[in-house]
Amino acid sequence: MPTAASSPAPRRGRGRPSRPVLTADGITTEAVALLEERGQDGLTMAALARRLGVAPSALYNHVATKQDVLRAVQDDVNRGIDCSGFGRLPWDAALADWARSYRDAYERHPALVPVMAVTPVRSAPHTVEMYERVSSGLLAAGWPAHLVTNVVVAVESFVLGSALDTEAPADIFDPGDLAASAPGVTTANAARPEGDTARAAFELGLSALLTGLRGLLAAPG
Amino acid sequence: MPTAASSPAPRRGRGRPSRPVLTADGITTEAVALLEERGQDGLTMAALARRLGVAPSALYNHVATKQDVLRAVQDDVNRGIDCSGFGRLPWDAALADWARSYRDAYERHPALVPVMAVTPVRSAPHTVEMYERVSSGLLAAGWPAHLVTNVVVAVESFVLGSALDTEAPADIFDPGDLAASAPGVTTANAARPEGDTARAAFELGLSALLTGLRGLLAAPG
DNA sequence: ACCTGAACACCGTTCAAGT
DNA sequence: ACCTGAACACCGTTCAAGT
């Protein structure tokens, strides 16, 4: 029975257990599960502790803050992002696959988007590994070193913004009472094909971004 | 003395005031100021009420939730975004100016990024006006109606992701102890020019995105 | 209708006491 | 070292009571 067992019986003893009942990895695993099941607001230190069969204060023997938990969760999410195209496919196809996988991962965890944008990569091993595959792939494909990080950040910014956009309600652009003063919005809305509109906008932007990047690599300066 | 006066003397009377002391606009104005002065965590209903010289519960006669306050603040921020290029400049130059102004506005208010991505535009008049200028500008420039909203959303996703990126610490990509396993990241970091790196990545991405969009408009399908 | 003040059901976090 | 349970300083929000 791994630490991931749900709803373990609460400990009744008063003092230090003979063997530790918590580990950093176990906390992270349960935090990911909790985030997946109950969403952003469901991930509280109290709920996490209950899942682990422990008092909330016990968590603080293993993590300093809730932000620590979020950082660990985020590194775990990044572990699942597919970077396998680099070195196997042309750089632009690899970058496109990475961007799609990256967006899919954060579509499932939009609450982590602001965390990802701001958290240093050190002590986040899977995150470092992801960036290493992308950066070394771009370098090997002939991208000038001084542009590589900017390319990565530009694509990442688009991906994270697009991940937030997947949360938008379908009628976000419906001007309601203000329709009379917004004929252009109304026309554009009416002509927009139905279906997965967030994905359509993402694919359009990704395609445009890659076209521009190919041009930049071909004619630098 | 407008409602924006700071630290008014608290009312001491017990019942309904002879004239209302709060208005929706006054609440929004003070909320913007509070967000600007104290940042995301500083904008609490208690702090907002104190600034307005009122008990926290009084706010609930004018707004239903704190989310309401955030939505109003956000519409106010959108009022300041420059859309003046549309109809005056070529569509791509107008779109670039809009994107820069949009990013600048949310760089000052990164906490509003997740709100913006998700909030319906109805009952947000300045936001509708912004989208109207952009949409009608693209339509007038010859963009097919069925692509206009996707273009807007794609650029917006890039802008909002880039706004979050401005919050990142300068050493976010420093692999620390993991440097030995990340030679590509280390090389790219070392070669990246110093200065406003977030802006450099934004300008690179914006340029690439616009190049791709120009190509798409020229050769649709 | 629109305010006050008390109350409710939470938060994340700290800390003394236990083993 | 690593747990419990009580406590602290907050949150956003509700609601009866006042005018």
TrEMBL record, chains A, B:
Keywords: DNA-binding, Repressor, Transcription, Transcription regulation. Residues 44-63 bind DNA. It comes from the Bacteria. InterPro entries: Cro/C1-type_HTH, Homeodomain-like_sf, HTH-type_TetR-like_transc_reg, HTH_TetR, Repressor_TetR_C, Tet_transcr_reg_TetR, Tet_transcr_reg_TetR-rel_C_sf. The keyword Transmembrane helix does not apply. Gene3D superfamilies: Tetracycline Repressor, domain 2 (1.10.357.10). It holds the Pfam family TetR_N. Residues 1-10 have a biased composition (Low complexity). SUPFAM superfamilies: Homeodomain-like (SSF46689), Tetracyclin repressor-like, C-terminal domain (SSF48498). Residues 21-81 form the HTH tetR-type domain. Residues 1-22 are annotated as: Disordered. This is TetR/AcrR family transcriptional regulator C-terminal domain-containing protein. It comes from Kineococcus endophyticus.
